[in-house]
Amino acid sequence: MKRICLLITFFLTILPMVGTAQEVQESPEVLLARAEKLQAEGQPISALTAYMEANRLAPRSPEILWRLGRQYCRLMEDEFFPVDKIRLARVGQHYAHKASMRDPGNAMARLWNAYALQETSYLMTDARGRIAMGPDIYREAWAAIELDADLSEAWLILGRHEWDLALMSEPDQYLAERFYGKNRVPEASVDRAISYFQKAVSLAPQRVAPHLYLGMAYNALGKKELARAELEKAVSIETKEKSDLRHKAEAAALLERTGGSYL
Rounded to whole angstroms, how far apart are CA atoms 128 and 261? Predict the structure, then answer.
C-alpha cells in the first residue's frame, strides 16, 4: 500500500509539469485506451496513472470516473492486509459514486459503486457497520441491472447479498431490520440467491467467480454433484483477471474437500 501511495503522489506531482505538446497529443480518450492496454498487459499501476491523468484533463467525465473507481478496486488484489484493501475499496467507491452522481443512468458507475461497497463490507469486522451498507449495495446493484440486465457482475453482487441476508444469525437479523425495514429480511431466500448466481453464470460462462459462488451455494445446500460441476468449471476457465487466481484457489480447495478433481 505504501508503494502504491508513493507512486500516486509522484505522478500527481509530475503530471501537471508535462509539456503542452504531449497534452495535445494525449486526449482523455487516448489515455483511457492506453490505460486499458496497460491493465491487459499486467501493469495496473501504470494503468492507474493513465486513468488519473485522464481524470485530471476531464474531471467531470462519468466514463473516466467509474473506470478510475474500478481500477482502485482491482488494486485490492495486490494488498495483503484488510485495512489496505479497505482503503483502496473506499477510494474506488468514491470515484464510482461521483460517476453515478454525475450520470445516474450510467450502469457501470452504479455497478462499481455496488462492488466497492460490498467488498468493503466483507472486510469490516464491525457487524453493525457491515450490515448498514447492505441497503446501498442492494440499491446500486439493482439500479445497474435495471439499466443493463446483462451485467453478470451485478447479478453476482445481488446473489451474494441475498445469500448473506437469507443466512443471517438472529442478532444480525435484528440489526438488519433497522436498516432494511422489518419486511425486507424475511423475504430473502437461498433459492433466490442461487437464481441470481445462475443468472450470472449464464451471462458470463467464461468468468471464474460466478461458477465459484454457485458451486459454494450448492455445496452449502448439500448438492454435492452440482457443486463439483460448477467448481470444476471454475478451476478450468482461463485466467483473465488477477482476482481469478484467488477465486480458482478457493474453488480448488473446496473441490478437494468435496472429493472432486481439479487436475
Answer: 39
